[in-house]
Amino acid sequence: MRKIPHIALLIETSREYGRGLLRGVARYQQEHGPWSIFFEPHGLDDPPPEWLRDWDGDGILARVNSGRMANTILETGLPAVDVRGALPGLGLPFIGVDNRPIAHLAFQHLVDCGLRNFAFCGTPRGENPNQDLRCQYFVELVQSEGSECFTWLGSNTHPTTTTWEEQQQQIASWLRTLPNPVGIMTCHDDRGQQVLDACRRAELVVPDEVAVVSVDNDPYLCNLCTPPLSSIDVNPSRIGYESAALLAKLISGEKPKLSTVLLGPPRGIAARRSTDTLAIDDLEVAAAIRFIREHAVEGIRVSDVIARADRSPSTLERRVKSILGRTIKAEITRVRLARAKLLLSETELSIAKIAARTGFAEAKYFCEVFRKHESTTPTEFRHRFREE
């Protein structure tokens, strides 16, 4: 084997997920390389490059999306890792996201918006295992709460002959049949953008009548939407890093213990205006919850929330718990910790500064609360989720 491994990256750059994978691979090779990288921008559905058939390299990282691409990679006989997971039984080790916590995060986010009607909009079954699992897990969560989950997955019959306009009309027709307000999870940002467009066609107001949360958190696509789309950040950089680490082991002759490795949980949810709603009939409770979410990081206490209400403290506390499933104090803590996790993963602020910016009286108390709820310390959390 050469002193410097030659690695081919067959990963598209058209979406944030692929770019995140590449950032993770870059970080790995900067820390453990150098590698000689063979890379040229391409789309997910592009055919395998002609040079790959006779390429004298050492390993391949690929988003395998077709049998043709899979066969070409397998025919090289080189160590390879799949970071797509679209083809079951491919014969290559796969590293990807764990879809169960992704579905749980989406469901909990919609529940926190006060929603009690739920739906899932995805792609035809069998088209992609990851998207199938997101639908399955989300439906199971809704049903476990005693509710019905409405689904729209398109059709396998003539997917290539259905135009954009026809599909948008189909989604709009489906949306009109749903009870509202309704919270919808979509399988990815592309479908989320379609749902928001279909809401306009169906004359449904987002987020008051329809709240939408998607997956992948592509900032360009999410912010092109009207209104901007809330989305789950699945931390693709970590997947890219771990897949590069696995490829390095394969090149050295080590055999993987598992053919499939699922990494999780997701980094969190980027909440934008598509879910900026509180679908709660009790106006006083809705006002209390909104006050918490707007001011929790300022160090407010339960007494500050109760002081704004006309009801007795016990009545307000009981109604909040009935709607959210947790107490006023627990909701304040949840909002603070959500903000703290975002600051830990995206900034270089010290633990003490993060504690101060999220409403905790002192860093020691912040660390105690964080460990209690997250089963890890703030420093360990930062190390685990930091992208670069």
Automatic annotation (TrEMBL):
Highest rank taxon of the organism: Bacteria
Query: Is the keyword Amino-acid biosynthesis in the record?
Result: no
GO molecular function per UniProt: DNA-binding transcription factor activity; transcription cis-regulatory region binding
Every copy of the HTH araC/xylS-type domain together lies at 286-384
This protein's UniProt keywords: DNA-binding, Transcription, Transcription regulation
Q: Which Pfam families match?
A: HTH_18 (PF12833), PBP1_XylR (PF22177), Peripla_BP_3 (PF13377)
CDD domains found in the cross-reference section: PBP1_XylR (cd01543)
Q: Which InterPro entries match?
A: Homeodomain-like_sf, HTH_AraC, HTH_AraC-typ_CS, LacI/GalR-like_sensor, Peripla_BP_I, Tscrpt_reg_AraC-type_HTH, XylR_PBP1
Show which residues constitute the signal peptide: none
Could you identify this protein by its name?
A: Xylose operon regulatory protein
